[in-house]
C-alpha cells in the first residue's frame, strides 16, 4: 500500500502559501490602469495566474444552471437534494412553474471527476425532462465509519434513487455506470419493483469489453488485479475527513489522463499564458473554464475501482451471465415492459463500437419495437453526451424515445 497520496498532500499544503500569495498579488495587479506598461504587467499577471492555478481542487464545482428555456419560456432552476447517503446525493434540478415532464435520472460515472462534468448534458435534458442526477461525494471527505463502497453499493444506490423518484421514471447512464444501471434495471424487473424505470438508455458504456478492445481495455487486462491494488490504491491523507480510507486517488487518475495527451495540455497552458500577457481575456477564460473543471478531481473508493476493473474489464461477468448482486444472479433477460436505447460514438477510443450495443442481445425480454440503437458518426467518447452533435443529433432521438415510452 503506497503512501504517495500522503506525500502529495504534504507537498500541496507546503506550497499553498505561494499559491495564495500569487492569487492575492494578481488581484492588486488587476487594479493597475490599462496602458501602464501593459507588456510588463501582462507577463507578470500571466506568471501569477499560472502559479495560483498550480493545484488541483477536491471540491465539486457549481453546476451553475440558474435557468433553462422550456418551450418559449425561461424558467428558473434551483437545486434540491431529494435524498442522500454518505456516498452520494440524489440531486433534483427543480424548475419553477414547469409543465409536467417525464422524470429522468441521469447516472454520472465515478471516474475521477465530479458529476458536474455532465453540466452541459443536464442543461440540454432540462428542456424536455424533469431531471435528477447522481451527485457522488468525494471519498476523501467521507469518514471511515461510513463503511465501504463497492460495485454492488453503486447498484443499490441506483435502486434507492429510482425508488425515491417514483414509478415510471427514465434512467440514462453515461459510460462506466452502464453496467450498474443494467444490473439495477434487471434486479428491479425481477422483483416487479414499482419504481423500475420505464426506459433505460446506455451511452458509451462498457457492457462487453471483449468486443474490439481499446487501449484502456487492454491495459486493464494486461496486469493481475493485485498489481492494481498494490500500485494504485492509497490511503486518504490524515489531513482529510476520510483519513485512512482506501482510494484510487484522483490526482493519479488525472496524471494518467493528462499523459495520454501531454503535448496538447502543455500547448493549452502556453496559449493561456500568451492570452493573459496580451490581455485577451475572453480567449483566456475559455481555457481557464475548461481546466477549472478538469482539475477538480475526485478519488474513487478502492473497493469500487478494484471490483470494476476485475468484474467489468477483466472477467466480463455481465455478458457471460456470471454477475451477481447481493448473492443472486443478475439476469438482463428478466427486463420486460421497458424501453432500451443504446448509443455509441464512431470514434470512441475508450468504449468502442459494439461494447454498448451488446446490451441489446442480453435483454431478450425487451420487445423489438421498444429497442433503439444509434451509432453517431464523427464523434469520440465525450461527443456522445456533450457538444454540438449531442445537442443536434443524439438528444432529439433520446427525447423522442423517452416521450414515446412515457
TrEMBL record:
Domain called PHB de-polymerase C-terminal: residue spans: 204-405
Domain of life assignment: Bacteria
InterPro entries: AB_hydrolase_fold (IPR029058), PHA/PHB_synthase (IPR051321), PHB_depo_C (IPR009656), PHB_depoly_PhaZ (IPR010915)
NCBIfam families (alphabetical): PHB_depoly_PhaZ
Protein name according to UniProt: Poly(3-hydroxybutyrate) depolymerase
